[in-house]
Specification:
The complex is a heterodimer of chains A (about 450) and B (about 450).
Chain A: H1 2-11, H2 13-24, H3 29-54, H4 60-67, H5 69-81, H6 89-114, H7 118-143, H8 153-156, H9 164-183, H10 185-193, H11 195-200, H12 205-227, H13 229-243, H14 250-274, H15 280-298, H16 304-337, E1 346-347, H17 348-351, H18 359-371, E2 375-378, E3 381-384, H19 386-409, H20 414-424, H21 430-439
Antiparallel strand pairs in A: 1-3, 2-3
Helix pairs in contact in A: 3-9, 3-12, 3-13, 3-14, 4-6, 4-7, 4-12, 4-13, 5-6, 5-7, 6-7, 6-12, 9-12, 12-13, 13-14, 13-15, 14-15, 16-19, 19-20, 19-21
Chain B: H1 8-35, H2 40-47, H3 49-59, H4 65-89, H5 93-115, H6 123-126, E1 138-141, E2 144-147, H7 148-166, H8 168-176, H9 178-183, H10 188-210, H11 212-229, H12 233-261, H13 269-287, H14 293-322, H15 344-350, H16 355-367, E3 371-374, E4 377-380, H17 382-404, H18 413-420, H19 426-435
Antiparallel strand pairs in B: 1-2, 3-4
Helix pairs in contact in B: 1-7, 1-10, 1-11, 1-12, 2-4, 2-5, 2-10, 2-11, 3-4, 3-5, 4-5, 4-10, 7-10, 10-11, 11-12, 11-13, 12-13, 14-16, 14-17, 15-16, 17-18, 17-19
The chains are: A mainly alpha (about 450), B mainly alpha (about 450).
């Protein structure tokens, strides 16, 4: 069934491309409003969300948006009882905002007075306020059946049919939030990174937390009404979390997060306009999630792919270093048995005993080292090239210095030093090596003799 | 305003089902709160949607065990994804929850639209049962008609409590010190996933019968309230289960009673249960034995009163010392010049306390029989002298210790000793005595009174 419905839209391609074109040029009044409104929201939520993420309050939007339900119900109830229109939007707005702010205040009080953890405070406010709202709506529904229907729509949103008024409200909220973030950028930064220091600098964390929470309330209330509760939570969390993969600095983080929020909303609203069957809010979340996954994989700072590649390169380097040292030590042992004449090369089979590598793996390794110009292979004979020899000498030197150090100063048994030095030889810095040389009888350049017996070839 | 319309056949079962659910959730929720993942219930309640869509697509029906299993599957996937994002990609815990649950919800919404275009598969109807309806769907077990929900929730509770009972030690260790647990050979990761899978099962099982709001509330609010009462895990679990059960009962009762005050019928039970859990949290937050505000205030106040009383007794004791010899009751006959007697004005002046305050302290001390009233003031009784002697001993031992062991200047020791004398018990005095040299005189040259055993009454 799923495939059919997508397929039927995709078959008539001329119309399809035309509608895409119309969309991308924002020719339709309706789609223009949806695209603009959601992008503005995505931008503002991305900026505010960066601060919530760094304040370790990513889910505050979740708590606050749920906390708005009782205010909504109460506003409706009071307006109806006073004889007015219960669904008059400004009244509902005011009620929801008030109860959202009370929820935010409750979170801060729970944190400071009872030292409850952040997430517990969120959970309490979310469930108790939402529970109260559900109970209140239950009463309202029994009070005037039918009249209150659609009140939940205020919370669950209606993306596909954003009105001009919604767009204005979103624009106003976005401007307020962005301006506030610009004006108090320094203070909010201080709050996120070191609230204790902010306190010593004379900023009241209460005031700053209150400011920050108010921004979340503003974003949440306009967004919730327009695009729905879950999408607002998603917009507050996902772009900011995605931006963390790109940078470690706050200013770029805020900008990237806003950009990802806008991009997600843009792609999402275009896609959902192309496929009117799909729920618009869900498509926008999905677009943001895809951008998040892309950032997770390819983000400049913490992207998993780069990390994986770096790790792989490092492992390869380690393996090659092991190979070079094994060749050097083998050659050295042979030269001793042949009274000083250093043989140019060793047999590949002789290296097998040095480590627990298989022949195939060893050959692959040698091949790679050959490509790097570190060894030369003639038949079954391997020899170190000039640069390989220098590296191998340096590594062996470091390895044995560390072994000597362990034996002399750390009282480590002779049988264990090889293993321990194996781990450390790759990361010894020149300053440390110099210090080791000074400690161990001033050996400077020559490679010291191995303190233990080297493995024999098979 | 009584419980009009309370019928045991219906309301009794509703309360039983809600209590079982609340206790299951609170038991696991205690660990969630301690581990900083309180919002997991909320996250799971949104994230099960794709599971429902898949189950519907596979079975074509809106009910049955297929739905339940798929939902549990989706919940477990959620838990693993959250943990994977946190551990391997270093995403903040809250953010990883937010990304995963909103993403799963979106996927679920899209799948549902594709799969069930013309069928009503509103998650609010499919998975989120209403607790008011639990008594209607009954199973016959051994001749008894028992609601299905009560049976499944009872089994869930049994499962959870036996898990906690069996792995109590491991849960304790991994919750408070994961690294220590790992170094001792308990896998903290295994315990984490075990606990989280159980949370997933419990949450989904409860959604189906009692709705999501109750689950989310009971996983956080009673454990948080229990934290106000105690710091010990064992007691915490009992408190949080007890409070959860209590909020289930009061919640259902208030769902019937509260609307009737406004001339309305009953309202949604699960919402009121969450609210009454919040009310209990407030009560515990005020009067809780451990962190309650009122309790803390009362503790401070009574400590301040004890310090003030100690000061009065100490002052009278020093008067007696100055008069030469302890307990000079022979001086009673002389009028106006008894050196061991002090009136309230003198006490107020010397202890720099307001007169009124002094009067109150003195009245309390008289009532406790530690001082007695004379014509021109107050004098220590035997019991009061005993307490005062120990106090002064503590004070002077501290002074000696500070000079001898901590190399304090002699003019700085009095204030410290003054503060610590109120919290020094017998074993502490013994240690101080052993740590200082064998002398009877403190650094100011005053006699250190000997330790005395309590007076016989």
């Amino acid at each position: 069934m799923a495939l059919e419905s997508i397929g039927s839209t995709a078959v008539d391609s001329p119309e399809w491309t035309e509608s895409l074109l119309r969309l991308l040029t924002l020719a339709d009044y309706n789609s223009r409003i949806v695209v603009l409104g959601t992008m503005l929201l995505g931008c503002a939520a991305g900026v505010v969300g960066s601060f919530t993420l760094l304040r370790k309050r990513a889910l505050v939007g979740d708590a606050i948006s749920h906390a708005m339900l009782p205010g909504l119900g109460l506003a409706f109830l009071l307006a109806t009882l006073a004889g007015g229109d219960g669904k008059f939007l400004p009244t509902l707005f005011a009620g929801a905002a008030t109860s959202g702010l009370i929820g935010a205040l409750t979170i801060l009080v729970l944190r400071s007075t009872w030292r409850l953890s952040e997430d517990a405070a969120f959970g309490i406010v979310l469930s108790v306020f939402f529970g109260a709202g559900v109970a209140l709506l239950g009463v309202i529904q029994s009070l005037e059946a039918g009249h209150a229907a659609g009140l939940e729509g205020f919370i669950y949103g209606k993306t596909a049919s954003l009105s001009w008024g919604d767009l204005l409200a979103i624009a106003a909220a976005a401007v307020v939030a962005l301006l506030a973030c610009m004006i108090w950028f320094k203070e909010l930064t201080l709050l996120c990174f070191d609230s204790a220091y902010a306190e010593t600098q004379g900023y009241s964390t209460w005031w700053l937390d209150g400011l920050h929470m108010s921004l979340v309330v503003i974003i949440t209330i306009t967004g919730m009404q327009a695009v729905g509760l879950i999408l607002v939570i998603a917009l507050l969390v996902i772009p900011a979390a995605a931006a963390r993969f790109w940078t470690n600095r706050l200013q770029p983080q805020v900008v990237i997060s806003a950009g990802i929020g806008m991009a997600g909303c843009f792609c999402g609203s275009i896609t959902s306009a192309l496929f009117p069957d799909l729920p618009a809010g869900a498509v926008m979340i999905l677009a943001c999630v895809l951008l998040f996954l892309f950032s997770l994989l390819f983000g400049m700072e913490h992207g998993q792919v780069w990390r994986g590649i770096r790790r792989w390169q490092w492992q390869q380097a380690l393996l090659r270093q092991h190979l070079l040292r094994a060749i050097y030590e083998r050659a050295e042992a042979k030269s001793e048995s042949q009274n000083g004449s250093i043989p140019a090369s060793v047999e590949v089979s002789e290296l097998l005993a040095a480590r627990s590598w298989t022949r195939a793996r060893l050959e692959r390794l040698i091949e790679r080292a050959q490509r790097e110009g570190e060894v030369t292979v003639i038949g079954t004979q391997v020899s170190l090239s000039k640069s390989g020899l220098i590296q191998a000498q340096r590594l062996t030197h470091q390895h044995r210095l560390w072994e000597l150090y362990l034996i002399t100063y750390a009282d480590v048994a002779l049988q264990q030093v090889d293993r321990l030095a194996d781990d450390i030889e790759h990361v010894l810095e020149p300053a440390v090596i110099h210090e080791l040389e000074r400690l161990l009888q001033g050996r400077t350049d020559a490679v010291p003799k191995s303190p233990h017996q080297l493995p024999e070839s098979i | 305003m009584g419980l009009v319309g309370w019928t045991w056949a219906l309301d009794g079962w509703i309360v039983v089902a809600a209590t079982l659910c609340a206790m299951s959730c609170a038991l696991l929720g205690s660990f969630l709160v301690l581990r900083g993942t309180s919002l997991l219930g909320d996250a799971i309640s949104h994230a099960v949607l794709p599971g429902l869509a898949i189950a519907f697509w596979a079975t074509g029906s809106r009910s049955g065990t297929g739905m339940l299993l798929a939902a549990v599957g989706a919940a477990i996937v959620t838990v693993f994804l959250i943990e994977a994002l946190r551990r391997s990609a270093g995403v903040d815990r809250g953010a990883s929850m937010g990304v995963v649950f909103t993403g799963m919800f979106a996927v679920g919404m899209i799948m549902i639209v594709q799969v069930a275009d013309h069928v009503d598969l509103d998650p609010n109807c499919v998975l989120y049962g209403s607790i008011e309806l639990t008594p209607l769907d009954q199973w016959s077990i051994g001749g008894w008609l028992i609601p299905k929900a009560v049976v499944t929730l009872g089994l869930t509770f049994l499962l959870n409590s036996s898990f906690v009972w069996l792995f109590y030690k491991e849960l304790l260790l991994t919750t408070f010190d994961g690294d220590l647990a790992d170094s001792m050979g308990f896998s903290s990761r295994f315990m984490h996933y075990g606990l989280m899978s159980l949370v997933a099962v419990t949450a989904v099982g409860s959604f189906e019968s009692v709705g999501s709001i109750l689950v989310v509330a009971m996983m956080v609010v009673p454990p948080a309230a229990a934290l106000m009462m105690t710091d010990r895990l064992h007691a915490l679990l009992w408190w949080s289960m007890g409070l959860a059960a209590l909020s289930a009962v009061t919640g259902h009762a208030s769902a019937i009673v509260v609307p009737s005050w406004f001339g309305q019928g009953s309202t949604l039970t699960s919402g009121m249960m969450a609210v009454s859990a919040g009310g209990l949290l407030l009560v515990c937050g005020l009067f809780g034995a451990r962190r309650g505000l009122v309790t803390r205030w009362w503790r401070q106040r009574s400590f301040a009163a004890q310090v003030a009383a100690d000061d009065v007794l100490g002052y009278l004791f020093r008067l007696e010392e100055r008069a030469g010899g302890v307990g000079t009751t022979s001086a009673q006959g002389k009028v106006g010049s008894n050196p061991t007697v002090a009136d309230v004005g003198l006490l107020s002046a010397n202890l720099s306390q307001p007169l009124k305050h002094c009067q109150r302290i003195v009245a309390q001390l008289v009532q406790r029989g530690e001082i007695e009233s004379h014509r021109d003031g107050y004098q220590l009784t035997e019991a009061g002298r005993h307490r005062a002697q120990l106090l002064v001993r503590s004070h002077r031992l501290w002074e000696l210790y500070l000079v001898e062991q901590a190399q304090f200047e002699i003019d700085r020791i009095h204030d410290k000793a003054e503060a610590w004398e109120h919290v020094t018990d017998e074993s502490m005095r013994q240690s101080l005595d052993q740590a200082t040299s064998q002398t009877d005189l403190d650094p100011h040259g005053s006699q250190i009174p000997p330790e005395v055993s309590p007076p016989r009454t």
